[in-house]
Amino acid sequence: MPGKKKTRGLTPGRKAVLDAMVHVEDGNYGIPATIREVMDLTGIASTNGVKDHILTLIREGYVVKANGGSRCYKVVKRG
């Protein structure tokens, strides 16, 4: 079947994004990370790359999206 391969679980990229989000949340009194903060901590070159990882983390139950704003992604399960 052509197309993207579906991978479940934490790949190294997803783990890096999740770890960066946890690091910022822990250092900001529970305030979630922005996409740019995650980019800076992981070295991922584009906001779209970070968003793709976050969307996968949402589907797998590690992150939830709150209403609007630049800090709308909250870690609910640590890897």
Euclidean distance between termini CA atoms = 30 Å
**Beta-strand content estimate:** 5-15%
Average pLDDT over all residues: 89
SS content category = mainly alpha
Task: Give the count of helical stretches.
Answer: 3
Amount of helix: 40-55%
Question: Which series of helices and strands comes N to C?
Answer: HHHEE
Strand order of the largest sheet: 1-2
User: What would the principal axes of the Cα set say about the shape?
Assistant: globular
Strand tally, please?
2
The biggest beta sheet is recorded as: 2 strands, antiparallel
Low-confidence stretches: none
> Compute the gyration radius: what is it?
12 Å
3D architecture notes:
- The protein is built from 3 helices and 2 strands; from the N terminus they run αααββ.
- The protein has 79 residues and is mainly alpha-helical.
- A hairpin with a 7-residue loop joins β1 (63-65) and β2 (73-75).
- The longest helix has 16 residues, at 12-27.
- The termini are far apart.
